[in-house]
Model the fold of this input.
Amino acid sequence: MDETPGKPRANDPTIEDVAAAAGVSIRTVSRVLNKSPKVNAQTRERIEDAIAQLNFRPSLRARAFAMRRSFLIGLVHNDRNALVLDSIQRGIVARTSARGYELIVHAAPLEAGAAICDVVEFAERSRVDGLVILPPISGVPGLAAALEEAQVPAMALSSVPIEGFTGVILSEERAAGAQVARHLLDLGHRRLAIINGPADTASAMERRAGFLAEAERDGGASVAEASGDYGFASGVSAADHLLSLGQRPTGIFAANDIMAAGVLKVVASRGIAVPGDLSVVGFDGSLLTKMLTPALTSVLRPFAEMAAAAADQLIARIEGLAAPLPYQATLQIVAAESTGPAPQ
Done:
């Protein structure tokens, strides 16, 4: 049996069958399938009825060939966090599948020169109609310009504005970092600590800047810092360091949920009560927050909504449609069981 994608089987109705049933030309049927406005309402209705009665499903391959498009959207990332990637993919697919597009996921290297070559070559090799690019790849200097030169429409997700992309979905992560500090300060914590993400990524720098600025504004708070890389092992290592300090913190902000999970592992092994002796906050608001004990207080980033908005704007650009209304991500701290009043 021939299962070649896009190739009709022997008994499948064809576009010629639809045209004959509706009493119109093949070209008119094609216009209806491609949502052309050049067909009057009565003729369109007659063709749509014929399509429904014959249970006709157009070949995506033929449609793509006729429109000189691939109906493929690429998602480019350099992220080890499977929970984050899953939410983003689901958000994009919720939009693309309804419009007849398929999603291709591509992991790119982070080094600037290698990243630019890799992403441009991926776009040309796969012939995608456009790209959604996640941080930190979206922040690679020169990438937006290279894609513009290659005439590849691209939407970026980022914590800071970036010029050159078709559009950017921004998440105000500096303000969110400040929310975390204010949450801990309002609970009475004055010995704070932060486990940073990779020092060369905008997201880590923005979260750190917001947290430190709010803590300094309080006046009476101190902040200890430890390095991390958004990985679980770095959260464990950083927690070991911070909890070995002479004046150990009573509130720790880990710059993502995975590192926060590392903190909770360390405190459990040391017999430190959370939140009685120590409050812990993460960032992302991923499914992991509900899987941990105690449930993790975290900054919720609406990944699926952000990704869906990026897909909507990208498809509008590809199809020459009016741009959707601008989307602004709202990041909000969600209090759970891992934070409480500072110990006396």
